[in-house]
């Protein structure tokens, strides 16, 4: 049973470019959350997708957008990249529903994005 | 001030020592999570707590809801325990929107 998988593992971009990161949730999960983790910091919540819609959003600009597909996989898109976007981007999956609320999210290994 | 504070930020211990990592939070929560992050970046959930105490192997996690404080203890520490330990809280049950602390970097020396 595969856990949460993310691709690519590493990525180098330059300022102003656009990037797309991908996440496949754990089998049986239908909700995907994205986090940004700057070096030496804890992860910060970007947004969450359920039923192909953005369900919650953190304090991130509109340059950060996402998508969820019918198979529950998700993409994170970042436009007009800034140096400050350099970070580890983590995807986490879970199963929606109060009966599952006592279970933690499962995290992927992350995509390390470097902006030059 | 961050909503979730951890201490210490860095910790070096000798193999076999008893280790305590502390977490304080300032918001109302439905659950508190302890997670482990290895150098590669992947995060593993250790505990999910809403009250009391949980134990798994050499790891023990406690929470005091009234004092808004939690501790993670590692007994008989081992070099393989070296990792970053992160505390995170969930304000509303089932939202899966975690607020993370900055982590405690633990190094256990042989």
> Which percent range describes the beta-strand content of chain B?
over 45%
Describe the largest sheet of chain A.
Answer: 7 strands, mixed
Topology, number of strands of chain B: 11
N-to-C series of helices and strands of chain B: EEEEEEEEEEE
Strand pairing plus helix content of chain A: what structural class?
Answer: mainly beta
The N- to C-terminal Cα distance of chain B equals 36 Å
**What structural class is derived from the secondary structure elements of chain B?**
mainly beta
Q: Radius of gyration of chain B over alpha carbons? A: 13 Å
Task: Tell me the number of strands of chain A.
Answer: 11
Write down the overall mean pLDDT of chain A: 94
Percentage of residues assigned to helices of chain B: under 10%
Polypeptide structure, described:
The complex is a heterodimer of chains A (116) and B (110). With 116 residues, chain A is an all-beta fold. Chain A has strands at residues 5-7, 10-13, 19-24, 31-37, 44-50, 53-57, 64-68, 74-78, 87-94, 106-107, 111-115. The model of chain A has no long low-confidence stretch (mean pLDDT 94). Chain B is built from no helices and eleven strands. In chain B, strands 2, 4, 5, 9, 10 and 11 form a six-stranded mixed β-sheet that branches. In chain B, β6 and β7 form a beta hairpin. The radius of gyration of chain B is 13 Å and the shape is globular. The N and C termini of chain B lie far apart (36 Å). The model of chain B has no long low-confidence stretch (mean pLDDT 94). The chains are: A mainly beta (116), B mainly beta (110). Chains A and B meet through β4, β5, β9 and β10 of A and β4, β5 and β10 of B.
Task: Pick out its properties.
heterodimer, A: 116 residues, mainly beta, seven-stranded mixed beta sheet, four-stranded antiparallel beta sheet, 0% helix, 49% strand, B: 110 residues, six-stranded mixed beta sheet, globular
């Amino acid at each position: 049973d595969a856990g949460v998988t993310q691709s690519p593992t590493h990525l180098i971009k330059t300022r102003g470019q656009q990037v797309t990161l991908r996440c496949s949730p754990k089998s049986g999960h239908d909700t995907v959350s994205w986090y940004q983790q700057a070096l030496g910091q804890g992860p910060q919540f970007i947004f969450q997708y359920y039923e192909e819609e953005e369900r919650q959003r953190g304090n991130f600009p509109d340059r950060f957008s996402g998508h969820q597909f019918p198979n529950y996989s998700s993409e994170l898109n970042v436009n007009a990249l800034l140096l400050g976007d350099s970070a580890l981007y983590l995807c986490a999956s879970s199963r929606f529903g109060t009966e599952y609320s006592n279970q933690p999210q499962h995290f992927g290994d992350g995509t390390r994005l470097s902006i030059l | 001030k961050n909503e979730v504070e951890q201490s210490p930020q860095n910790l070096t211990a000798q193999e076999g020592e008893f280790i305590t990592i502390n977490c304080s939070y300032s918001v109302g929560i439905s659950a508190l999570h302890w997670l482990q992050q290895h150098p590669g970046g992947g995060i593993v959930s250790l505990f999910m707590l809403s009250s009391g105490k949980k134990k798994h192997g050499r790891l023990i996690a406690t929470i005091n809801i009234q004092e808004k404080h939690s501790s993670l203890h590692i007994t008989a520490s081992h070099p393989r325990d070296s990792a970053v330990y992160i505390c995170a809280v969930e304000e509303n049950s089932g939202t899966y929107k975690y607020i993370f602390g900055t982590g405690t970097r633990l190094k256990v020396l042989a």
